[in-house]
């Protein structure tokens, strides 16, 4: 179970925040081995934190910032790649095939965004706070959820999944990220 996986990780990574551990377990689909591999790359929690900061800032963002936020999402995908792969290989692959590399790691970025908006949908709908994935961000989530209609949070979850589907096709990565960013800003208004 996710709780057992979280307990196992807490023993191996006692310095890590429990809410962050829960998030990594969720990103790993409850697989302890996959979660440990992620946590061994110290940059992963930093990227997650920056990405959630960005998500939390969406209600204050202006429409015209969508392009910049889209570019930021793509750069998170690149950072995730560089953080989780062997450095020499990562640099070579990024030079040889930047679009393919970023496209594969964009799924990880979308997974993190999805946990945020699922948490918001749960809280905005009056769900149990103990069920949120990003427990270390409970205060932020509650603040955003208080002003968000549950239907809008659910729509964003669909938008994220739709972006994932487009990226499996031949959609332009940057355009897909920018379109998603505009949708995220709109939903948080």
First-to-last CA distance: 36 Å
* Beta-strand residue percentage: under 5%
> Gyration radius, to the nearest Å?
16 Å
Class by helix and strand content? mainly alpha
Q: Level of helix content? A: over 70%
Counted beta strands:
0
Task: Summarize the biggest pleated sheet.
Answer: none
Task: Output mean pLDDT.
Answer: 90
Query: Uncertain segments of ≥5 residues (pLDDT<50)?
Result: none
**What global shape is seen?**
globular
Give the ordered list of helices and strands.
Answer: HHHHHHHHHH
Report on this structure.
The structure is a single chain. The protein has 189 residues and is an all-alpha fold. 75% of the residues lie in helices and 0% in strands. It has 10 helices and no strands. It has helices at 2-12, 18-27, 32-39, 43-57, 66-84, 87-96, 98-124, 138-145, 150-168, 173-187. Helix 5 crosses helix 6 and helix 7 (98-124) packs across helix 8. The longest helix has 27 residues, at 98-124. It is globular. The N and C termini lie far apart (36 Å). The mean pLDDT is 90.
Structure summary:
The protein is mainly alpha-helical.
Short key terms for the protein model shown above:
189 residues; single chain; 0% strand; mainly alpha
What secondary-structure arrangement, pairings included, does this model have?
Elements: H1 2-12, H2 18-27, H3 32-39, H4 43-57, H5 66-84, H6 87-96, H7 98-124, H8 138-145, H9 150-168, H10 173-187
